[in-house]
Specification:
The complex is a heterodimer of chains A (528) and B (307).
Chain A lengths: L1 H29 L3 H10 L6 E6 L14 H7 L7 E3 L5 E3 L2 E6 L5 E6 L13 H12 L8 H4 L2 E8 L2 E6 L6 H4 L7 H7 L13 E7 L3 E6 L13 E6 L3 H10 L4 E3 L6 H4 L5 E16 L9 H10 L2 H8 L4 E3 L21 H10 L7 E6 L3 H15 L4 E6 L2 H9 L11 E7 L3 H9 L17 H11 L4 H18 L2 E14 L2 E2 L2 E2 L5 E2 L4 E2 L1
Helix pairs in contact in A: 10-12, 15-16, 16-17
Chain B lengths: L1 H28 L4 H6 L5 H10 L6 H13 L13 H36 L4 H15 L2 H15 L11 H31 L2 H8 L4 H12 L1 H16 L3 H6 L5 H11 L2 H29 L8
Helix pairs in contact in B: 1-14, 5-6, 5-8, 5-11, 6-8, 7-8, 8-10, 8-11, 9-10, 11-14, 13-14
Classes of the chains: A alpha+beta (528), B mainly alpha (307).
Protein name (chain B): Glutathione transport system permease protein GsiC
InterPro entries (chain B): BPD_transp_1_N (IPR045621), MetI-like (IPR000515), MetI-like_sf (IPR035906), Opp2B (IPR050045)
GO cellular component, one term (chain B): plasma membrane
């Protein structure tokens, strides 16, 4: 009896706990799904007016002149504009300038500025504002990321209220792409100083509302934008959601309207899901294995070509990238200006073996491949390992945590010290200069730069140099063509793939795009 | 008792000092260069040196440590190498989020764990025991990662009752705290059960039953309280761990908490943030331990600390 009464008490308790949980969840369903309360609750209007974009990482800074990660710039692009801006396909278009001219040597750039533009704090945008911004970036002591590009600026001159003339200290044709860097309100720079990183004030179609560290960043429509009406959504909330599965779930429930990136493995689960669209677009991201050309046996071009012939790129895309990607047929993505297609090293084991034999490695050799600990990278490295085994090359897979890896690769004192044999990696760039000079110019051997294959070819060095010194587009195309042809032939990499950008959005979202470089384009954001 | 607490509080100072010394030198021993990561792949040597100087990382380690401690003593945690923001700013929101999650998880885990443990002990080897222990085993063996995603699928995607993540309202905390508390609840249930079974064998319980006390009174008033020492120990330890933030749960539910901040900072070799976070965790752990020791005394007056 006594036990029975205890059991009764216990079960009543247990039941009430269950009820408690039941009630609270019932309350949840009563007030509508999160999706419905999302837009409605904030505006009180039936029309959805808040767009939620879920991304995979935290934003680092909101100072566009001191930004190194694509995600932070993606968010900034809603609030900031440069003299030029990139459209959704990475074409340059007029931003805060309406037209510009360049002299033949690519040393003088003159911009006609857009008139009647105001910063979000109400102060006017004019030539003086441009000068203050350019001076900020070209001043070494400010230690900004943008200095890397703006160090070429010798002087910025205010010609009149709406004209600026920029003079470079040496010819640099790629400078035109760098004028996309966002212009900050000089008044805000003065007011916030270093804190400008969390108080962004620009001219863009959206203005800053709040940034709750680690949780979200909110912007609202700028009613005074020079191109008002293009963007229609009242509010955009950017949220870092690191877990892939959670991001997909948010899209399904409608808590997020756009998610990026969409992991390849999850595309299947979204295909056919009602109200959800999967978008694909070629990216600027190239995926390759960098081969250390200073080391034996990789100093022999036949060995490097053999390795390229031994890897089945179609299978790579199918197995490692779940079919989303294209073969890498040059040293950069086709989305970048002056791209010249080179074709592919056909998958041919016999040919690979033949080349190895000619080079004196008939019986293969043993080497290793490095990469980070990301599961996709591991998959890629194992794929290479398995492919090269077929031609007698034994590859040991070594995955290292990112910071350690970066230290091993770039932290060396001299090129000869490099321990790396092969490195499974990717590179993203928006312009040909960044795609080629950084990776193949011999002045950029680590530790001084990112030419991790230690590639050196005098013709390539010369062509890159000439291309940066000419503003003539045809000449640039021809010179960058020479670079691509030679690098491809010399095979400092295993040429693998060009990634596809995959993102998901709700079917009622219009005008939001992820650009080939991973930027978030919201200048025409609207709900149907 | 009061003297004891004051003594314990004073002991914190040397412990924190040693901890700070260990973290500082250990983190600098780990390979990886925050300057390289901050400056980016394309940085020139010149740029890297400039950034290194600006961040003060070019000075000898000892100088850096002294600077760091000087700042710390004036309450200045320093700035993040990655974002340039003051570390106190980065903590502000994250700490309260982790606190809320900790209390919610531990709260339901305590209630349910004690309940299941008690029922299982009282009905040893009968069906309530089997059901209770089966629940406990499941709770302990389900990986948080998997459980979290399943809860999202069922309660967010299919039923639409709770948001998939974030920290927008109390509702956002329900699924993460269920996930985080499951393992603790199970552990508490098992410890309560075994501890209670031990106590129920004691002479004073037989005496109680012999003098005709109701079984519910015997269990509640006499046995349960005396079985609580191991349970409080476990709960205290878990509380300490929870305050450190759960990386898995914070990742699955996109919660901006302390755990993720620590992991992100380690990945970036953001030395000042790593140091500040670990210092805070150590402090929390010490305080929770002190709290547990005080609770021991409340549970068992025989324990004396004054001596």
């Amino acid at each position: 009896m006594k036990k029975a009464s205890f059991l009764r008490t216990a079960s009543v308790l247990l039941f009430s706990v269950a009820l408690l949980f039941g009630c609270s969840s019932g309350g949840g369903s009563g007030s509508g799904t999160p999706a419905a309360s999302n837009g409605g609750a904030t505006t009180g209007a039936p029309q959805k007016d808040q767009l939620v974009i879920a991304v995979n990482e935290n934003f680092i800074t909101m100072d566009p002149q001191n930004t190194g990660d694509a995600l932070s710039s993606g968010v900034q692009s809603a609030m900031f504009e440069g003299l030029l801006i990139y459209d959704k396909d990475l074409k340059l278009m007029p931003g805060l300038s309406t037209e510009y001219s360049v002299n033949k040597d690519a040393t003088e750039y003159t911009f006609k500025l857009r008139q009647n533009v105001k910063f979000h704090d109400g102060t006017p945008f004019n030539a003086e504002a441009v000068k203050i911004n350019f001076d900020r970036m070209s001043n070494k002591d400010n230690n900004l990321r943008a200095y890397r590009n703006y160090k070429y600026i010798k002087s910025t001159e205010v010609v009149d209220e709406h004209t600026v003339k920029v003079t470079l200290n040496q010819p640099f044709s790629a400078m035109i792409n760098k004028f996309t860097t966002g212009i900050i309100s000089p008044a805000a720079l003065e007011k916030y100083g270093k804190d400008i990183t969390k108080n962004p004030v620009g001219t863009g179609p959206y203005k800053f509302v709040e940034w709750v560290q680690g949780d979200h960043l909110t912007v609202e429509l700028n009613p005074d934008h020079w191109n008002k009406g293009a963007a229609k959504v009242g509010k955009i909330v950017y949220k870092p959601v690191p877990e892939n599965g959670s991001r997909v779930a948010m899209l399904k429930t409608g808590e997020a309207d756009v998610i990026y990136p969409l992991p390849e493995q999850q595309v299947e689960t979204l295909n056919g899901e009602e109200g959800v669209k999967v978008e694909r677009t070629p990216s600027t991201i190239t995926r390759y294995v960098s081969i250390n050309m200073l080391k034996k046996p990789f100093d022999d071009p036949r060995v490097r070509q053999a390795i390229n012939h031994a890897v089945d790129k179609d299978a790579f895309i199918k197995v490692v990238k779940s079919g989303y990607g294209a073969q890498l047929e040059s040293v950069m993505s086709p989305t970048i200006a002056h791209y010249a297609k080179q074709g592919t090293y056909e998958y041919n084991i016999e040919k690979a073996k033949q080349l190895l034999k000619e080079a004196g490695y008939e019986n293969g050799f043993t080497t290793d491949i490095w990469g980070n600990t990301n599961s996709d990278t591991m998959k890629g490295m194992q794929f290479i390992q398995q492919q090269l085994q077929k031609v007698g090359i034994t590859v040991e897979v070594k995955s290292m945590e990112e910071a350690t890896l970066s230290d091993e690769i770039y932290g060396i004192k001299s090129p000869e010290e490099a321990k790396m044999n092969m490195w499974y990696v990717s590179w993203s760039s928006a312009d040909p200069d960044n795609a080629m000079r950084s990776l193949f110019s011999s002045e950029n051997f680590p530790p001084a730069g990112a030419n991790t294959a230690f590639y050196k070819n005098d013709l390539v060095d010369q062509s890159i140099k000439e291309a940066t010194q000419s503003s003539d587009q045809d000449k640039q195309k021809q010179l960058y063509g020479v670079v691509q042809e030679n690098v491809f032939k010399d095979a400092p990499w295993i040429f693998l793939a060009v990634d596809e950008i995959l993102y998901g959005k709700r079917a009622n979202v219009n005008g939001v795009y992820i650009t080939p470089s991973g930027g978030i384009y919201v200048r025409e954001a609207a709900f149907q | 008792m009061f003297r004891y607490i004051v003594k314990r509080l004073i002991e914190i100072i040397p412990i924190i000092f040693v901890v700070s010394l260990l973290i500082f030198f250990f983190i600098h021993l780990v390979p990886g260069d925050p300057v390289r990561l901050a400056a980016g792949k394309e940085a020139t040597l010149e740029e890297i040196e400039r950034v290194r100087q600006e961040l003060g990382l070019d000075k000898p380690l000892l100088t850096q440590y002294i600077n760091y401690m000087q700042n710390l003593l004036t309450g200045n945690l320093g700035h993040s190498l990655k974002t340039g923001l003051p570390i106190s700013d980065m903590f502000e929101n994250r700490f309260s989020v982790t606190m809320t999650l900790t209390f919610m998880s531990l709260g339901w885990a305590l209630v349910l764990g004690l309940l299941i443990g008690t029922i299982s002990a009282v009905f040893r080897n009968k069906w309530p025991d089997y059901v209770g222990m089966l629940t406990a085993i499941s709770g302990i063996s389900l990986p948080g990662f998997w459980l979290g995603l399943i809860l999202i699928q069922v309660f967010s995607v299919t039923l639409g009752w709770f948001p998939t993540g974030g920290v927008d309202s109390w509702k956002s905390y329900v699924l993460p705290s269920l996930t985080l508390g499951a393992g603790i609840m199970s552990m508490l249930a098992r410890f309560t059960r075994s501890s209670l079974l031990e106590t129920l064998k004691e002479d004073f319980i037989r005496t109680g039953r012999a003098k005709g006390l109701k079984e519910s009174v015997v269990v509640r008033k006499h046995a349960l309280k005396n079985s609580m020492i191991p349970v409080v120990t476990i709960a205290g330890l878990q509380f300490g761990f929870l305050l450190g933030g759960s990386v898995v749960v914070e990742t699955v539910f996109s919660i901006p908490g302390m755990g993720r901040l620590l992991i992100d900072s380690i990945a970036f070799r953001d030395y000042p943030v790593v140091q500040a976070v670990i210092l805070l965790f150590s402090l929390e752990f010490i305080l929770v331990n002190l709290l547990v020791d005080i609770l021991y005394k409340a549970l068992n007056p025989k324990i004396r600390y004054d001596s």
